[in-house]
Amino acid sequence: MKHTLVALVQDKPGVLNRVASLFRRRAFNIESLAVGHTDQAHISRMTIVIDSDNTNAHLVEANLAKLVNVLDVQDVTNMDTIFRDLALVKVRADAAARAEIAQLADIFRAKIVDVASDSVIVEVTGDEDKIEGLVELLRPKGILEMVRTGRIAMVRGNQSADRKNGNGKYNGNGHVTHDVGVSSV
Amino acid sequence: MPKLAGAQILWECLVREGVEVVFGYPGGAILPSYDAMLQYPIHHVLVRHEQGASHMADGYARASGRVGVCVSTSGPGATNMLTGLATALMDSIPVVAITGQVGTKVIGSDAFQETDVTGVSLPVTKHNYLVTDVHELPHIIREAFHIARSGRPGPVLIDIPKDVQLATMEFEYPTAPLHLPNERLLQRYAPMEYFERAAQLIAQAERPLILAGHGITLSGAEQEVLEFAEKHNIPVTLTLLGIGSFPAEHPLCLGMMGMHGGVCANEAIQNADLLLAMGMRFDDRVTGNLKTYSPYSKKIHFEIDPSEINKNVKVDVPLLGDLKASLQKLAPLVAPKRHDAWLAHLKNELEQNPMRDVLDWESADGLMSEHVVHDIWTATQGEAIVVTDVGQHQMWEAQYYLHNKPRTLITSGGLGTMGFALPAAIGAKLACPDKEVWVIAGDGGFQMTLYEMATIVQEKLKINIAILNNGYLGMVRQWQEFFYDARYAATPILSPEFTKLAEAYGIPGYLVEQRADVMSVLEEVRSSSGPALIEFRVKMEDAVYPMVPAGANLQDMIKREKAAQPL
Question: What DSSP line would sit under B381-399, residue for residue?
Answer without folding.
Answer: TT-SEEEE-SSHHHHHHHH
